Amino acid sequence: MALPLHPDTPAHPGEYRNPVLDEDWPDPDVIRWGDGYLMVASSFNRAPGLPLLRSSDLVTWEIVGHALPGLPPAEHFALPRHGGGVWAPSIRAHRGTLYLVWPDPDHGLYVSTATDPAGPWSIPHLVLAGQGLIDPCPLWDTDGRAYLVHGWAGSRSGVKNLLTVREVSPDLRSVLAPGRTIIDGAALPGYRTLEGPKFYLRDGWYWIFAPAGGVATGWQAAFRARSVYGPYEGRTVLAQGAGPVNGPHQGAWVTDPGGADWFVHFQDRGAYGRVTHLQPMRWDSGGWPVLGNDGEPVLSHAAPVNSTRQGMRAVDGSDDFTGTLNRKWHWQANPDPAWSILSDGHLDLQPIPNDLGDLRQLPQVLSQQLPAVACTFQTSLTLSRTTEPVRTGLVLLGQEYAWIGIEVREGGAHLVCRRSGTDQSADRRRVEEPVIDQALPAAATVRLRLSSDGAGAVQLAWSTGDTDWAWVPQTFTPVEGRWIGAEVGLFATAPPGAGSPPLARYGAFQMRSTQSTPGEA
């Protein structure tokens, strides 16, 4: 479904524009830490998981690391589990220690700790096993006791639209008491899919900020009580209203050093995922929070204290392939170190003999988010030899996909572009549809390019030697993944049983903002 896009008008000096991150960082939670802020986001099936981002001003963000090198249980996530894995996490600091608490809806609630957001993070501890437990957030009370609030996924448990609180040990390692339902969405007029709670204390009130209404169509509510177990009263504090920002909800309340309050939340942008917005926040005479412009999202606003100049509104994914991989990269499942080697400014991908024809089933796709801004991605590709079957290239990945690269089959190397098809073979494997297929000279180096207008159109291109770019005549529409946006990736794969397929060598990966029209050189 096409969702509202934002006027891309520049902000005035001293202002920021929403979204502050116009790419897929789902279910953000934010805290003050040191002289800046930390944000964590959902990562679902992707590994490494639980990305940690840092900002000095709530506007411009950079990745500092991941808390999960691989997803537990390791064997389960050796294959892509689209829609599974890490759902909405929370981050909190308590007595100098950072706590991450997150749900896997098929396994339970996990916790990990660190003293530095860059890690090392402790081995994930399963604090509460069970299916359908989602969106946990801890709270340490003034008397030293600790609590965990969470929601429910009806797809796993048959229960939803409820928020539950459990007392837990102060180290969040064990549950001390049975859960108690504190808010029942069924008892609230119009409420559906109440989830994503965040727990706070303010002036003797227990506050729960929680979204309802669904990912693309929901709103943000706030609830308060004098007791941790309620009774809670609530109201809607942020909704679309007459503006273009659909479903503004699920995020975090944070206070800047000057004492001003802010709310960080997402908006669903379809193929571009859940993008990050920043709303001003104040308190009315009755002690209730007022978000945005009297409860509707702002598109621009005076920047927070110490705000820096707003840039591309996307984390730079460029990589010269020296040292370590750009932290923006992730795999579609738990990685094997043998899949990739950084070598003299190149990335060597080892083709894995697991190709059954559908790139969505490959764990070894190295990818990053496709931003909702006009940009290009470019790299070069060379095969170490062209005598064994292999295919490798640059892919626009979602529940549907398109890719361009090199395929070696009987008869030699070919420059190919293919897209995922709707037909299936006799054994129910997806059959790709050819777009381009032409012979290549042996050992040719091919430059590959993906150009996106940030508004629903992507074109692929290639070049050999010093020739001009040749654009694939077909334009592709990015399609979201399962609970995530579309991605840009690199892959290498070979048929089952392949003995020693050749290495795929990629040159520097360049991401740059562009206002040019796809199809122009």
Structural class: mainly beta
Supply the CATH class of the largest domain: Mainly Beta
Overall pLDDT level:
93
Question: Shape, please?
Answer: globular
Per DSSP E runs of 2 or more residues, the count of β-strands stands at 36
The CATH architecture of the largest domain comes to 5 Propeller
SS strand fraction: 35-45%
What does this structure look like?
By secondary structure, the chain is mainly β. It has 2 domains: 15-302, Tachylectin-2, Chain A (5 Propeller); 337-513, Jelly Rolls, CATH 2.60.120.200. It has one helix at 154-157, and strands spanning 15-17, 29-33, 36-40, 49-55, 62-68, 90-94, 97-104, 108-114, 125-129, 133-140, 146-152, 162-168, 180-184, 198-202, 205-212, 219-225, 233-238, 249-255, 261-268, 274-283, 289-291, 300-302, 340-343, 346-349, 366-369, 375-383, 390-397, 402-409, 412-419, 433-439, 446-452, 458-464, 470-471, 487-493, 504-506, 510-513. Strands 23, 24, 26, 31, 32, 33, 35 and 36 form an 8-stranded antiparallel β-sheet that branches. A hairpin with a 5-residue loop joins strand 31 and strand 32 (458-464). The two termini are 30 Å apart. The model is unreliable at 1-8 and 516-521 (pLDDT under 50).
